[in-house]
Amino acid sequence: MTGDLRHTPLHALHLEHGAKMVPFAGWHMPLQYGKGILEEHHIVRRDAGMFDVSHMGEVDFRGPGALSAIHVLVAGDAGKLPDGKALYTVSCREHGGIVDDLIVYRFGEQHFRIVINAANVDKDLAHFREHAGSHCEVIDRSDEFALIAVQGPRAVAIVTELAGDPALADVPGFGLRDTTIAGASVTAARTGYTGEDGFELFVLAADAPAVWRALHGAGVEPIGLGARDTLRLEARLSLYGQDIDETTNPYEAGLGWVVKLDRGSAPPFVGHAALSRIKAEGPTRRLAGFVVEGRGIVRPGAEVLGEGDQVIGHVTSGGPAPTAGGAVGLAYVPVELPADAPLRLRQRGKELTARQVKGPFYKRPR
Fold first, then answer.
1. Who's near 286: CB < 8 A, 6+ residues apart?
2. Is 252 a member of any domain?
């Protein structure tokens, strides 16, 4: 690992837990702890685990023009957000390509926050300031905050008990509530990236170790990036840089539902004209989910074959599905390919067959 990688405020605690550290998006991040990726995956599905996601970026928008700035930057309809609620959506280039997928949080009429992917912080900030910097203050707060995701069937109960705040249990999905844990001020957002219930906790960087220790003392196990990837893939949540990027648009990526072309009197967002055209004409490809038949795991980059072994698409994500069973993945395929057609996949000269699947591979019990 090179010396110019950054450490999150929780780096020392990862080492105490015996984490295997790897470089990720310019940071030293835990790949796994002593229990291994498979067991960490099962801990989150069955109990509760916590992730250090402090490498994610936080950008605040403040001032009378905050909402108009958000309107310009995101394809969702933030105008319908009440205080204390959040919205998953995308920000796009003029040609409709995805700059980032992100969550918009509304704290008040003149205060919004966007959480962005770690590898995109500099790019997103430049995009935000170029297109919305004249509307309001655009403040990079990424270094001020740590972000701890607590996920799993027991996550909400544990965080609620630690905070001594029964109202936390009633926070709705994509809702927010300010509370206190281990003497630290925390904003708890009922969001996540695992397919499980739980909270993502915004806490000042200096207070993060105390909150982490309190969670660990309450029985929440630390979980690394390896299990985070298997969890999100089972839940069929896209990964920026693999399943989506600036060469993909929301409609072909299965994210058309986050795009609101008709937002009344709100100003059009960047990429509105391009996405209007793409929706009218229809995308030429789609992101298909698949389950591998028989044994074998398909990794990103594997080819999707058509007639005559012509390459008609590529796998973007693939790996084991510890809870759902077998091996699963995502691949871009032509829209003409029937949704019930088997997929022929070629990886390192070996051919495998997969069946297409709609929806997530795993869905948590309600």
1. 252, 254, 332, 333, 334, 335
2. no
